[in-house]
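Structure ticket #2291
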Amino acid sequence: MNNPRFETTTNVVSGAAELVRGQEEKFLEELRPLVCSGSVRLDLSSVERIDAAGLAALITLYCTAREAGHRFTVSRPGRHVREILSVVGLDKILLPQAADDFSDSGIEMAETAA
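Resolution: structure written out below.
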């Protein structure tokens, strides 16, 4: 298993305003290769709406990353998305608890239209 403190993290900016049923497969298709190859921090600042399918997609990415020995977290969720993550308990799993959870050196920026 990789040591998450020393691996490079890819920051991915979600271009989607909604992470809802019908969009989750494309979202997973674009992000699954990234979480298989390294740690990913997904910027959710543009996501205004998320449903059960979106939450399931985030869980899938988290599990896929863990199986590959990497980390998957989200950052900058809006108020509504943060509330939903909190209600279902995913905030404790997906939101980094400390600023040093990832090294910022060598960060690559990628954008997805999901």
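Closing remark: DSSP finds four helices and six strands in the chain.
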